[in-house]
Amino acid sequence: MTAPEAREWAWFTASVLARILLGTCVVAVLWSILPIAFGWTSAVVISGSMLPRIRPGDVAIAGPVRAGDLKPGMPVLVDNPARPGRLLLHRVVRRNPDGTLVTKGDANAAEDSTPVPPGAVRGLPRLLIRWIGLPVYWHGRGEHRKVLATLVVTLVLLVVAMRREDDDAGPRHARHPRHRRERFRCQPSVPNRRG
User: Fold this and answer.
1) DSSP 99-154
2) Which end is more exposed in the chain, N or C (fewer Cβ atoms within 10 Å of the end residue's Cβ)?
3) What structural domains does the chain harbor?
């Protein structure tokens, strides 16, 4: 294999891998957003309270559920009663006589101090998408270098994925069919005048 052929194969392989990575990311993002159109809730996990199963940067997709159907041990996504405007993904420990739920994070030593009213239940997590929410998590923590690095890597992948085979064939105007050298010469057809 010659050096140009090896370089061509390397670019081809890099392009295919970049397209696979970008395609996987696009599908994961769509999976985390589309359920919202059907009344589900999508949330980026921003704490380690549910480690080791649910990690910061994961996206949890929760489908509707009635508060009365929740049983101890089930994870639940709720409006956080202790921090209005925030969501909380914890496990149900028990139901109080007044109908409120007591929750606790798997990695937490103690139960949550504020019971969850039944009306605050958003849903039962039914799908977990790993890592796709990391840029949102990093941004929320002020880790802007990681967000910037993610953007740079994404742009590099886009450039590699969009590279065409004829990109190293010289200036763009030279690749236009009018400006190319003739690769094939046409021979005028001469009728066969035998016999």
Assistant:
1) S-EEEE-TT-SS--SSPBPGGGEEEEEEEEE-STTHHHHHHHTT-HHHHHHHHHHH
2) C
3) 31-145 (2.10.109.10)
